[in-house]
Amino acid sequence: MIDLTTTLNKLHFKTPLMNAAGVHCATTTELDDLLDSQAGGLVTKSATLQPRTGNPDPRYANLPFGSINSMGLPNQGLDYYLNYANATALTHPDFPILLSLAGQSLAENLQMLERIQASAFSGLTELNLSCPNVPGKPQIGYDFDQMKTILTAVFQTFNQPLGIKLPPYFDLAQFDLVADILNQFPLAFINTINSVGNGLFINLETETTVIKPKGGFGGIGGSYVKPVALANVRAFRQRLNPAIQIIGTGGVVSGGDLFELILCGADVVQIGTTLAQEGTPAFGRILTELERIMAQKGYATLADFRGNLKTL
Ligand SMILES: O=C1NC(=O)NC(C(=O)O)N1
User: Fold this and answer.
1) Measured by CB atoms within 10 angstroms of the end CB, which terminus of the chain is less buried, N or C?
2) Which residues are catalytic?
3) pLDDT tens digit string along 251-294?
4) Distance separating alpha carbons of residues 186 and 148, to the nearest angstrom
Protein backbone atom coordinates (compact mmCIF):
# COMPACT_ATOMS: atom_id res chain seq x y z
CA MET A 1 0.00 0.00 0.00
CA ILE A 2 1.56 3.31 -1.14
CA ASP A 3 1.23 6.24 1.32
CA LEU A 4 1.47 9.60 -0.53
CA THR A 5 0.78 11.77 2.52
CA THR A 6 3.12 14.57 3.57
CA THR A 7 3.08 17.57 5.89
CA LEU A 8 4.06 21.22 5.47
CA ASN A 9 4.38 22.90 8.86
CA LYS A 10 0.96 22.23 10.51
CA LEU A 11 -0.86 21.31 7.28
CA HIS A 12 -1.47 17.67 6.37
CA PHE A 13 -1.44 16.89 2.64
CA LYS A 14 -3.17 13.74 1.33
CA THR A 15 -1.01 14.01 -1.81
CA PRO A 16 2.29 15.91 -2.27
CA LEU A 17 1.19 17.75 -5.43
CA MET A 18 -0.52 21.14 -5.75
CA ASN A 19 -0.76 24.14 -8.09
CA ALA A 20 1.90 26.83 -8.34
CA ALA A 21 0.78 30.35 -7.45
CA GLY A 22 -0.49 32.12 -10.52
CA VAL A 23 -1.80 29.06 -12.33
CA HIS A 24 -5.49 28.09 -12.16
CA CYS A 25 -5.93 30.06 -8.92
CA ALA A 26 -6.95 33.66 -9.71
CA THR A 27 -10.76 33.25 -9.35
CA THR A 28 -13.08 31.30 -7.03
CA THR A 29 -14.09 29.15 -10.01
CA GLU A 30 -10.49 28.13 -10.62
CA LEU A 31 -9.84 27.65 -6.90
CA ASP A 32 -12.94 25.43 -6.53
CA ASP A 33 -11.60 23.34 -9.44
CA LEU A 34 -8.46 22.72 -7.39
CA LEU A 35 -10.54 21.77 -4.34
CA ASP A 36 -12.32 19.15 -6.45
CA SER A 37 -9.11 17.76 -7.95
CA GLN A 38 -6.54 15.27 -6.63
CA ALA A 39 -4.29 18.14 -5.56
CA GLY A 40 -3.22 17.83 -1.94
CA GLY A 41 -3.61 21.56 -1.35
CA LEU A 42 -3.89 24.89 -3.14
CA VAL A 43 -2.19 28.28 -3.25
CA THR A 44 -3.96 31.45 -4.36
CA LYS A 45 -2.67 33.85 -7.03
CA SER A 46 -0.03 36.18 -5.55
CA ALA A 47 -2.09 39.03 -4.14
CA THR A 48 -1.51 42.75 -3.83
CA LEU A 49 -3.56 44.84 -1.38
CA GLN A 50 -5.75 46.22 -4.17
CA PRO A 51 -6.84 44.36 -7.33
CA ARG A 52 -4.46 44.62 -10.29
CA THR A 53 -5.14 44.21 -14.01
CA GLY A 54 -1.54 43.24 -14.77
CA ASN A 55 0.33 43.51 -18.05
CA PRO A 56 -1.23 43.84 -21.55
CA ASP A 57 -2.08 40.72 -23.59
CA PRO A 58 -0.66 38.57 -25.07
CA ARG A 59 1.16 37.91 -21.80
CA TYR A 60 1.33 34.08 -21.76
CA ALA A 61 2.41 31.61 -24.43
CA ASN A 62 2.84 27.83 -24.49
CA LEU A 63 6.18 26.79 -25.96
CA PRO A 64 7.51 23.48 -27.36
CA PHE A 65 9.04 22.54 -23.98
CA GLY A 66 7.21 24.79 -21.52
CA SER A 67 5.87 28.33 -21.33
CA ILE A 68 6.71 32.02 -21.17
CA ASN A 69 4.69 34.54 -19.14
CA SER A 70 4.72 38.18 -18.21
CA MET A 71 1.37 38.40 -16.41
CA GLY A 72 2.39 41.29 -14.16
CA LEU A 73 0.57 40.08 -11.04
CA PRO A 74 -3.04 40.41 -12.19
CA ASN A 75 -5.14 39.51 -9.14
CA GLN A 76 -8.41 40.27 -7.34
CA GLY A 77 -6.75 41.80 -4.29
CA LEU A 78 -5.93 40.25 -0.91
CA ASP A 79 -9.42 40.39 0.62
CA TYR A 80 -10.85 38.28 -2.24
CA TYR A 81 -8.40 35.45 -1.50
CA LEU A 82 -8.52 35.85 2.28
CA ASN A 83 -12.33 35.61 2.17
CA TYR A 84 -12.10 32.54 -0.08
CA ALA A 85 -9.59 30.89 2.27
CA ASN A 86 -11.71 31.55 5.36
CA ALA A 87 -14.92 30.35 3.66
CA THR A 88 -13.21 27.22 2.36
CA ALA A 89 -11.80 26.44 5.80
CA LEU A 90 -15.43 26.01 6.92
CA THR A 91 -16.45 23.70 4.07
CA HIS A 92 -13.12 21.88 3.66
CA PRO A 93 -11.47 22.13 7.10
CA ASP A 94 -8.72 19.63 6.29
CA PHE A 95 -7.70 20.96 2.85
CA PRO A 96 -4.35 22.83 3.01
CA ILE A 97 -4.59 26.43 1.79
CA LEU A 98 -1.65 28.72 1.12
CA LEU A 99 -2.06 32.46 0.55
CA SER A 100 0.54 34.02 -1.75
CA LEU A 101 1.46 37.70 -1.36
CA ALA A 102 3.39 39.95 -3.74
CA GLY A 103 3.17 43.44 -2.29
CA GLN A 104 4.95 46.09 -4.34
CA SER A 105 6.60 47.59 -1.26
CA LEU A 106 7.62 46.50 2.23
CA ALA A 107 4.80 48.63 3.63
CA GLU A 108 2.24 46.89 1.42
CA ASN A 109 3.52 43.45 2.40
CA LEU A 110 3.43 44.36 6.12
CA GLN A 111 -0.09 45.71 5.71
CA MET A 112 -1.26 42.48 4.04
CA LEU A 113 0.44 40.31 6.68
CA GLU A 114 -1.23 42.35 9.42
CA ARG A 115 -4.63 41.80 7.77
CA ILE A 116 -3.99 38.05 7.54
CA GLN A 117 -2.84 37.87 11.15
CA ALA A 118 -5.98 39.70 12.31
CA SER A 119 -8.20 37.30 10.36
CA ALA A 120 -9.25 33.74 11.13
CA PHE A 121 -6.86 32.42 8.45
CA SER A 122 -5.18 29.22 9.69
CA GLY A 123 -3.27 28.17 6.59
CA LEU A 124 0.25 29.06 5.48
CA THR A 125 1.40 32.35 3.96
CA GLU A 126 3.87 32.48 1.05
CA LEU A 127 5.66 35.78 0.48
CA ASN A 128 6.56 35.99 -3.20
CA LEU A 129 9.97 37.66 -3.48
CA SER A 130 10.55 36.62 -7.06
CA CYS A 131 8.02 37.93 -9.57
CA PRO A 132 10.15 38.81 -12.61
CA ASN A 133 7.38 40.53 -14.57
CA VAL A 134 6.50 43.89 -13.01
CA PRO A 135 8.14 46.48 -15.28
CA GLY A 136 10.68 48.50 -13.35
CA LYS A 137 10.57 46.21 -10.28
CA PRO A 138 13.68 44.04 -9.89
CA GLN A 139 13.24 40.66 -8.19
CA ILE A 140 13.74 41.05 -4.44
CA GLY A 141 15.22 37.55 -4.34
CA TYR A 142 18.26 38.87 -6.21
CA ASP A 143 18.76 41.84 -3.85
CA PHE A 144 20.17 40.13 -0.76
CA ASP A 145 20.28 43.22 1.46
CA GLN A 146 16.64 44.06 0.62
CA MET A 147 15.62 40.45 1.25
CA LYS A 148 17.27 40.54 4.69
CA THR A 149 15.60 43.88 5.51
CA ILE A 150 12.18 42.57 4.48
CA LEU A 151 12.51 39.30 6.44
CA THR A 152 13.70 41.16 9.53
CA ALA A 153 10.71 43.52 9.39
CA VAL A 154 8.24 40.71 8.59
CA PHE A 155 9.29 38.50 11.50
CA GLN A 156 9.12 41.41 13.92
CA THR A 157 5.35 41.59 13.41
CA PHE A 158 4.01 38.40 11.76
CA ASN A 159 3.61 35.44 14.14
CA GLN A 160 1.89 32.96 11.78
CA PRO A 161 3.79 30.33 9.72
CA LEU A 162 5.47 32.01 6.75
CA GLY A 163 7.36 30.79 3.70
CA ILE A 164 8.99 32.62 0.82
CA LYS A 165 8.94 32.03 -2.97
CA LEU A 166 12.47 32.35 -4.33
CA PRO A 167 13.82 32.97 -7.81
CA PRO A 168 16.25 30.41 -9.25
CA TYR A 169 19.94 30.85 -8.37
CA PHE A 170 22.73 29.71 -10.66
CA ASP A 171 25.92 29.96 -8.60
CA LEU A 172 27.06 27.85 -5.61
CA ALA A 173 28.32 30.98 -3.82
CA GLN A 174 24.79 32.41 -4.16
CA PHE A 175 23.27 29.26 -2.66
CA ASP A 176 25.67 29.66 0.31
CA LEU A 177 24.92 33.36 0.71
CA VAL A 178 21.13 33.05 0.42
CA ALA A 179 21.00 30.01 2.73
CA ASP A 180 23.04 31.92 5.34
CA ILE A 181 20.44 34.70 5.24
CA LEU A 182 17.43 32.38 5.35
CA ASN A 183 18.82 30.32 8.23
CA GLN A 184 18.66 33.44 10.39
CA PHE A 185 14.86 33.48 10.23
CA PRO A 186 12.13 31.14 11.59
CA LEU A 187 10.79 30.36 8.12
CA ALA A 188 8.26 27.55 7.84
CA PHE A 189 9.35 26.81 4.26
CA ILE A 190 10.87 28.06 1.07
CA ASN A 191 9.35 27.49 -2.36
CA THR A 192 11.93 27.11 -5.10
CA ILE A 193 11.88 27.92 -8.02
CA ASN A 194 9.81 30.70 -9.48
CA SER A 195 10.00 31.00 -13.27
CA VAL A 196 13.43 31.59 -14.81
CA GLY A 197 13.07 35.33 -15.30
CA ASN A 198 13.32 37.38 -18.46
CA GLY A 199 13.72 34.73 -21.07
CA LEU A 200 12.85 35.46 -24.71
CA PHE A 201 11.02 33.32 -27.28
CA ILE A 202 10.81 34.17 -30.96
CA ASN A 203 8.30 33.28 -33.65
CA LEU A 204 10.74 32.50 -36.49
CA GLU A 205 8.11 32.82 -39.21
CA THR A 206 6.93 36.31 -38.21
CA GLU A 207 10.27 37.36 -36.67
CA THR A 208 8.39 38.67 -33.64
CA THR A 209 8.26 38.00 -29.93
CA VAL A 210 5.36 35.84 -28.67
CA ILE A 211 4.27 38.00 -25.72
CA LYS A 212 3.72 41.76 -25.61
CA PRO A 213 4.98 43.07 -22.23
CA LYS A 214 8.60 44.08 -21.72
CA GLY A 215 9.55 43.61 -25.38
CA GLY A 216 8.73 39.92 -25.15
CA PHE A 217 10.81 39.15 -22.06
CA GLY A 218 9.07 36.77 -19.64
CA GLY A 219 9.40 34.06 -17.02
CA ILE A 220 10.22 30.64 -18.46
CA GLY A 221 8.50 27.55 -17.02
CA GLY A 222 8.02 23.91 -17.89
CA SER A 223 10.51 21.24 -18.96
CA TYR A 224 13.10 23.86 -19.90
CA VAL A 225 13.62 24.67 -16.22
CA LYS A 226 13.50 21.25 -14.51
CA PRO A 227 17.33 20.92 -14.17
CA VAL A 228 17.38 24.35 -12.50
CA ALA A 229 14.53 23.43 -10.13
CA LEU A 230 16.21 20.15 -9.15
CA ALA A 231 19.49 21.95 -8.41
CA ASN A 232 17.83 24.68 -6.32
CA VAL A 233 15.81 22.20 -4.25
CA ARG A 234 18.90 20.04 -3.71
CA ALA A 235 21.23 22.95 -2.91
CA PHE A 236 18.87 24.49 -0.35
CA ARG A 237 18.04 21.14 1.25
CA GLN A 238 21.78 20.60 1.75
CA ARG A 239 22.22 24.09 3.27
CA LEU A 240 19.05 25.04 5.17
CA ASN A 241 18.15 24.31 8.78
CA PRO A 242 16.06 21.11 8.67
CA ALA A 243 13.21 23.05 10.33
CA ILE A 244 12.79 25.00 7.09
CA GLN A 245 10.81 22.77 4.74
CA ILE A 246 10.93 22.94 0.94
CA ILE A 247 8.26 23.22 -1.74
CA GLY A 248 9.78 22.18 -5.05
CA THR A 249 8.46 23.84 -8.20
CA GLY A 250 9.57 23.83 -11.81
CA GLY A 251 9.37 21.53 -14.82
CA VAL A 252 7.22 18.74 -13.38
CA VAL A 253 5.42 16.96 -16.21
CA SER A 254 5.54 13.30 -15.10
CA GLY A 255 5.56 11.13 -12.00
CA GLY A 256 9.29 10.70 -12.56
CA ASP A 257 9.81 14.46 -12.39
CA LEU A 258 7.79 14.55 -9.16
CA PHE A 259 9.86 11.66 -7.77
CA GLU A 260 13.10 13.47 -8.63
CA LEU A 261 12.12 16.69 -6.80
CA ILE A 262 11.23 14.67 -3.69
CA LEU A 263 14.54 12.75 -4.06
CA CYS A 264 16.26 16.18 -3.94
CA GLY A 265 14.44 16.97 -0.69
CA ALA A 266 11.06 18.52 -1.54
CA ASP A 267 8.26 18.02 1.01
CA VAL A 268 5.55 19.27 -1.38
CA VAL A 269 5.74 19.82 -5.15
CA GLN A 270 3.88 22.32 -7.32
CA ILE A 271 2.97 22.33 -11.02
CA GLY A 272 2.44 25.47 -13.10
CA THR A 273 2.93 25.06 -16.85
CA THR A 274 1.68 21.44 -16.88
CA LEU A 275 -1.46 22.54 -15.01
CA ALA A 276 -1.97 25.45 -17.41
CA GLN A 277 -1.64 23.12 -20.42
CA GLU A 278 -3.40 19.95 -19.18
CA GLY A 279 -5.83 21.18 -16.53
CA THR A 280 -6.56 19.54 -13.19
CA PRO A 281 -6.50 15.95 -14.58
CA ALA A 282 -2.71 16.42 -14.53
CA PHE A 283 -2.73 15.89 -10.75
CA GLY A 284 -4.21 12.38 -10.96
CA ARG A 285 -2.05 11.38 -13.93
CA ILE A 286 1.20 12.49 -12.28
CA LEU A 287 0.30 10.95 -8.91
CA THR A 288 -0.59 7.61 -10.54
CA GLU A 289 2.77 7.66 -12.33
CA LEU A 290 4.52 8.40 -9.01
CA GLU A 291 2.76 5.49 -7.29
CA ARG A 292 3.86 3.13 -10.08
CA ILE A 293 7.50 4.24 -9.73
CA MET A 294 7.41 3.89 -5.93
CA ALA A 295 5.89 0.40 -6.21
CA GLN A 296 8.56 -0.65 -8.72
CA LYS A 297 11.29 0.60 -6.37
CA GLY A 298 9.70 -0.87 -3.23
CA TYR A 299 9.04 2.48 -1.50
CA ALA A 300 5.89 2.65 0.67
CA THR A 301 6.12 6.29 1.77
CA LEU A 302 7.69 9.54 0.50
CA ALA A 303 10.00 9.56 3.52
CA ASP A 304 11.50 6.28 2.26
CA PHE A 305 13.37 8.23 -0.43
CA ARG A 306 13.00 11.99 0.28
CA GLY A 307 16.36 13.75 0.09
CA ASN A 308 18.23 10.52 -0.67
CA LEU A 309 19.76 11.55 -4.00
CA LYS A 310 23.03 9.68 -4.42
CA THR A 311 26.12 11.22 -6.04
CA LEU A 312 28.71 9.36 -8.06
O1 LIG B 1 5.93 35.45 -9.44
C2 LIG B 1 5.49 35.39 -10.60
N3 LIG B 1 6.07 34.56 -11.48
C4 LIG B 1 5.68 34.49 -12.76
O5 LIG B 1 6.30 33.75 -13.55
N6 LIG B 1 4.63 35.26 -13.19
C7 LIG B 1 3.81 35.92 -12.26
C8 LIG B 1 3.22 37.20 -12.80
O9 LIG B 1 3.78 37.75 -13.76
O10 LIG B 1 2.25 37.65 -12.21
N11 LIG B 1 4.43 36.15 -10.99
Assistant:
1) C
2) 131
3) 999 999 999 999 999 999 999 999 999 999 999 999 999 999 99
4) 13
For residue 202, being part of any structural domain is answered with no
Which residues have CB under 8 Å from 149's CB, separation 6+?
A: 106
> Which CATH number does the domain housing residue 166 bear?
3.20.20.70
Domain that holds residue 94: 6-53+73-196+224-304
Q: Does 67 reside within a domain?
A: no
- Please report which helix (H) or strand (E) contains residue 24, including its range: none
Tell whether 205 is covered by a domain.
no
Instruction: Kindly provide the ipTM of the predicted complex, given to two decimals.
Output: 0.98
The predicted-structure confidence for 152-164, as pLDDT tens digits, reads as follows 999 999 999 999 9
Residue 217 lies in a domain: no
Residue pair 144/135 in contact by the 8 Å Cβ criterion:
no
Pocket test residue of 24, 52, 69, 81 for ligand 1, highest count of atoms within 8 A of CB: 69
Q: What is the pLDDT of residue 95?
A: 98
Domain count, the chain: 1
Q: Is the CB of 219 under 6 A from ligand 1?
A: yes
Note the pLDDT of residue 204.
Answer: 98
Residues in the chain: 312
**Interatomic CA distance for residues 96 and 267, integer angstroms:** 14
Task: Give the Cα separation of 303 and 278 in Å (integer).
Answer: 28
Q: How far apart are CA 199 and CA 162, in angstroms?
A: 29
Question: From the CA atom positions of the chain, what is the Rg in Å?
Answer: 18
* Spacing, Cα 70 to ligand 1 middle (Å): 7
